[in-house]
Amino acid sequence: MTASRRQFLESVGSGMLVAGLGPSLAQELGFGSVLARESSEALTFGSYDALVDLLQSTPLDRLQPLLVEKLNRGEANLQKLLAAGALANAEAFGGEDYTGFHTAMAMLPALNMTQMLPSERQPLPILKVLYRNSAQIQALGGPSKKTLRKLHAAEEATVENRELAIRDACRVADVERAEKLFAPLGSGPLDAAFNALQPAMQDEINVHRFVFAYRTRGLADLLGKEYAHTILRQCVRFCCNHEQDRISRKGAESPIRALMPKLLDQYKLASPRFGARDPGDAAVEELARTIYQGPPERSAEAAAAALADRLSPEVVGEAISLASNMLVLKQGPENWRTHGDSAGVHSSDATNAFRNMARLSKPQHAASGLVVAAYHVAVHTPFKTDPYPTADHRSWIKAKDAAGLLDEAEDAVRHNDQGRAAAAIAIYGEGGYLPEAVFDRLLKYTISEDGRLHGEKYFQTVSEEFRTTRPAFRWRQLIGLARVTASAYGYYDREDHYGRRAPGYEEACRLLKVTA
What we know:
Layout: H1 5-11, H2 14-21, H3 23-28, H4 49-57, H5 60-73, H6 78-93, H7 98-114, H8 123-139, H9 162-171, H10 175-182, H11 190-201, H12 207-223, H13 225-248, H14 256-266, H15 281-293, H16 296-308, H17 313-330, H18 343-360, H19 363-378, H20 391-395, H21 402-414, H22 418-430, H23 435-448, H24 455-468, H25 475-488, H26 505-512
Helix pairs in contact: 4-6, 5-8, 6-7, 6-8, 6-13, 7-8, 7-12, 7-24, 8-26, 9-10, 9-11, 9-13, 10-13, 11-12, 11-13, 12-13, 12-18, 14-16, 15-16, 15-17, 16-19, 17-18, 17-19, 17-25, 18-19, 18-24, 21-22, 21-25, 22-25, 23-24, 23-25, 24-25
């Protein structure tokens, strides 16, 4: 198709086209019911238009063959397919659909996974996430599902504090005003636009606000300035949508809104001058335990006090990350599922997002973000059980060498044996063996399983936290990944139905002629 559906419709009446093609052929070609609703208000995506249309309109049974064909012919590469998927997702959902924004959060991690795979398997994580993306778009209306439209509002040019004005508009769910306030930033530097979102992102204890903001920033980097505003404006809409839900339920505002100004004033963090102090392993672990135990107010204050005491933001973030990891490792066996939206995965992903955003944000937003991250850890009731692996788990491991330990870990994953998987990787790490081999072994199950939509981003979280955690503690991250991977194996949807791989995965393997 040399011109996109959007361009075509500008010159051809939709009713005439459907009449000429017939409804069946129109749907097969990717026009479908959108023809009756398409207007000049629709977003356009330049060179991505045709791919966006294909991803929104192609029936699922034809989608992956077409994508593989485009790859084989050199008509698109994996990065371009993913970029088109991000734009299709943004237009369809605008940050307002659970599966939609989880799919968006999985996109960059999936692209990063391609670099860890042999060439013949590299398309697998991309095909998986694009299949999920298109399936949800079509489940909710197909190509007629358009949450984002072109903005024609007058710019809010004279605003004293735009960052707080955006936050305040989100607090009352005034999406029109919030969008108008954010719109002028689309023509400026990406850092300025991203910083303007931070007060709204930190204004509620909701893991998806945090992770979605960080992952959309990465997608904005990938897509470039032309589409950065389209991607980032979803964060504004997410906050308004979430706030509207709270208002409709007559729910109370988050306590963080009253607590944060007090802590910033008490510890002089409104305009912080960060230190670079590292108090050593024992002190970092003690701070992590304090944050883990809570209650949330105490955890937030512990982080604020540490920053005021000139601890490096990297060290404070590391302690918060270790506290999140405790939720993964200390969850007891009576709560069998550790994958998906479990306390540990949610907390780890949120902390990872805040640590990364702190590196990208102005100092005052970095400080407040780390305080919110600590608070968020402790909203989860701390588990009292011993961390995995226990002594019993370790006693089940027979192998001593690296290859044997990896094989035992993989066998444990396939049998959903979280304790044995954790033990095998713990003993492997204690043996001084290479972590890359563990990531390689667990990656294929992150790709092949659904993971309740969380597998890709948690794998990326662990990859990043392993690199930025001190040697004394970093293997805890990989032990957590082994446990979560064992939990997820065989469960193929959000309802934890068992017995299949992730939707679209096996078809993608057949098309690529690789083993599933």
